Amino acid sequence: MSHAVSVMLKVSFYLGDKFASENTLFHSRSTLGLDVPLSDGMSVFQLRTKLDMWEYAGSLRYNFLRGGFQPYAKVGYGLTWYRLEDGSINGQGMANPNSYWVRRPGFIRNLWPNTLHLGAGVDVILVKDFIPGLHGVDGGLRAGYILSRHELGVKDLTGDNGLQGIVVEPVHVYRNTFELLGTLSF
Description:
This protein has 186 residues and is mainly β. The chain has one domain: Porin, CATH 2.40.160. It contains no helices and eight strands. Strand 1 and strand 2 form a beta hairpin.
């Protein structure tokens, strides 16, 4: 299928020259699919759906250098929830094309983090005093990489969906994220 292009909002609070606390809200939509060749060798079973994924994450970041060029490493955790939408088989919409939300946080339920991540990258300040008249507002770019490990939460669904006895351990997946962000700092 295709790579997801996502919307991300990050807020960083600097704790001295070397450490920063980062909070991230992430939303991604991507198309998923599975093509299975059938026994006749000419037909294909096509399953298509869209993944609607949200994540709230917190990180502790360490800057190796100070100033306008800051390579960094970070580690953190977060809450990830998702659902499948617009499911179809061989181009025909399913009777129930949208799944339930999996691991969606609530007032008491699903508040424990289900995602851990590690990352590295570089922040570069390109323009000092980016906004005329506002001293100390700088513009720049961030390029980075994040490796996330999610617990999918399918074990929580086993009783409701007839999967009892099939899924006995938590299921984990890994996600690679390459980010290129514009930054505004003050």
